[in-house]
Design a protein that fits this description.
The protein is mainly α. Helix content is 75%, strand content 0%. The chain has twelve helices and no strands.
Length: 232
């Protein structure tokens, strides 16, 4: 082909054809950014109040990338929940392997400790789950069947073992494990109050560990000292 100057234009190599999957497949960081953005959006606004556009904007990616990686909002929500609970269940499994010969009370303490620490490390995920617990629906059913029921069955078994040995009072099965887990995670819902009242960050690693140990002590031993018990 001649140019307006009469010279022959150099031949150009055709650009390789682009496919829709080529760009997203290479963008591994985009998937994680979507996960990070989604957990904030879901925890603050709930599933129904969160839009895929808001998630994509927060993640600074194009909306089609969300559909490519997760298939839509529901798939992304499940991926966020799975990422947190998978870590929690792996920690529980590791604890069980390490403490096969431990007594029931030691195993119970360890299970409660792992549960508390995981929730403190992932406050947004905890808030996301609490929203589903408060309103009930198919997403709560999915969380229960895949993650909550297996953990509470483990906790119930440990509590039953401790009760059979006369170590723990026979509280009703329907309330004991839920009461324990609720108290262990109460700091998340009160963190802003604690910061303003006492100028303490309850979500720092040191404070989280301290809160966990104090709450387990409260659950298993109560608040009264030996002197307090004698003076009742």
């Amino acid at each position: 082909m001649n140019t307006p100057t009469g010279k022959t234009a150099p031949k150009r190599t055709p650009a390789p054809a682009r496919t829709e999957a080529a760009e997203p497949a290479a963008d591994t960081s985009g998937r994680q950014r979507l996960m990070d953005a989604a957990i904030v959006e879901f925890s603050e606004k709930g599933f129904e109040g969160t839009s895929v556009l808001a998630i994509a904007r927060r993640a600074d990616v194009k909306q089609p990338l969300l559909n490519y990686h997760f298939g839509g909002k529901e798939g992304l929500w499940r991926a966020v929940v799975e990422s947190t609970y998978t870590e929690a269940m792996a920690s529980i499994d590791a604890m069980q392997v390490d403490e096969d010969t431990a007594d029931a009370l030691t195993k119970l303490r360890s299970a409660l400790r792992v549960f508390a620490i995981i929730n403190v490390l992932h406050p947004a995920a905890h808030s996301l789950v609490l929203r589903e617990v408060a309103q009930a629906g198919p997403r709560l059913d999915w969380i229960i069947e895949h993650y909550m029921r297996p953990f509470h069955e483990l906790l119930d078994a440990l509590l039953a073992e401790c009760q059979a040995e006369g170590l723990i009072k026979p509280y009703p099965r329907a309330y004991a494990s839920v009461m324990m887990t609720s108290l262990l995670t109460s700091v998340q819902s009160s963190m802003h109050l604690i910061k303003r009242l006492y100028d303490v960050d309850p979500m720092s690693p040191e404070q989280a560990a301290q809160h966990t140990e104090q709450t387990i002590d409260l659950l298993l031993n109560g608040m009264l000292t030996d002197s307090g018990k004698r003076n009742r």
